[in-house]
Design brief:
The chain is built from five helices and six strands. By secondary structure, the chain is of the alpha+beta class. Strands 1-2-3 form a three-stranded antiparallel β-sheet, with no helix packed on it. Helix 1 packs across helix 2, helix 1 packs across helix 4 and helix 3 packs antiparallel against helix 4.
């Protein structure tokens, strides 16, 4: 591991701890050259399924893309970055547990929408307006009312 202070390659692990989530190891390191101490985190890489769009196109899963959408929907709302990360972590867990190699986006959107509905109704409406892609305000209001009822009945 390269030292962030002097860029030397020769560093030594002086302490390792398993974090509470059980999937991450925290390592304290010391540079043998400049004696700078720093922390690294090691996490197992999991292969998430490919997303299948409504029109049949396939797209690589992007945590950042979902995170950006959630941040936009929750701007100036009482939703923390930790809550957004939790939603994404739960989504990724659901995708991994499915065992599917190809996962439909029409299951991703409703899942995220239902989680936002529990946290903040304004963020829920913002995200839903992007996801459902409406032509007019009237259809947006009508569908929002219908889908809110459906979401409450069919919680993911």
């Amino acid at each position: 591991m390269r030292c962030p202070n002097c860029q030397e390659q020769d560093t030594k692990v002086i302490d390792s701890r398993l974090l509470q989530d059980g999937d991450t190891v925290r390592r304290r390191r010391k540079c043998e050259s400049c004696e700078h101490r720093f922390t690294t985190y090691e996490k197992t890489e999991q292969q998430l399924p490919i997303l299948v769009k409504r029109d049949g196109r396939m797209e690589t899963y992007s945590r950042e893309k979902i995170k950006n959408g959630l941040f936009k929907a929750s701007q100036k709302r009482p939703i923390s970055a930790t809550q957004i990360d939790d939603i994404i972590d739960e989504l990724e867990g659901m995708m991994l547990q499915s065992g599917l190699k190809e996962f439909p986006t029409d299951r991703v959107g409703p899942y995220v929408i239902s989680k936002l509905y529990e946290l903040d109704h304004v963020a829920y409406v913002r995200f839903a307006s992007f996801y459902w892609n409406f032509d007019t305000v009237d259809t947006f209001i009508k569908d929002l009312q219908n889908k809110t009822v459906i979401e409450n009945q069919n919680r993911v």
